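If I may wish for something, please walk me through the protein I am sending here so I can picture the backbone:
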Amino acid sequence: MGDPQFKIGMKFRDFKQFKDAVKNYGIKNIFVMNFRPNDSRRCKATCARGCPFYLWASLMERGSTTVQIKSGFMKHECAKEHKNRHVSAPWIARKYREQFRADPAWKLSGIIQAVRLNQSVEISRLTAFRAKSIALREIDGDEETQMQSLYDYRLELMKTHPGSTIKFRCDQGVFEAMYVCLAPLRLGFLAGCRRIISVDGCFLKGLYGGQLLSAVGVDANNCSYPLAWAVVNKETRMNWIWFLQLLSEDLSIGNSHGWAFVSDRQKVLVLV
């Protein structure tokens, strides 16, 4: 599909696969292709510059989706086209998905340069931005869909980590906060970590925003030990009290004697 070589009798799964192959051929060889007529029974691919090149494809038989090239003239007699509409944002996102996965911060200028060198096509910054957005959405997932699966996520965590504490807080059905303390982390902290807990918050960059509150301990090797975290709508006193109360219940802290809490890496003792 990356560099198709067409011939009479070649078969495709459906018209979409046929048109994708023709578009990839045009991108690879720097031509722009048109599709007309283009319906559920037939499709003709021609060169946009009007040269004799054409491919005629139709269904092999009624009731089937298999498409076959029935006739064609597969030589171009026109110049190359360095402004190719087939090099669209979705196409770039699919073509360079692994590069986006390896470098989510890939700059727009780098995307434009890669397309220019590899496809000999000029794209705008807007096309590069859209391609990056599509690729990262496909890699990271759609936030709206993920938010709808929060309860499924909770059930999966409870299934794989029995005894964990995972709680939601909602206001009239609207999600406000989520608290997570996995049982293995809690038991490991109580068994081998010092009674020192660092708490901090940071902004969440995404469709819904919010704050991430976290509690981190110190293990026997003086390394950070994740203990519990919460996603809240805002970093407020009420949200911090809610988070620390749940944390104290998980750790059975009835008396603050012997416990030290550090906030923003400052030596501040907090009584619970």
The chain has three domains: 1-83, 87-141, 148-263. The CA atoms of residues 195 and 259 lie 5 Å apart. Residues 148-263 form one domain. Confidence is low (pLDDT under 50) at residues 267-272.
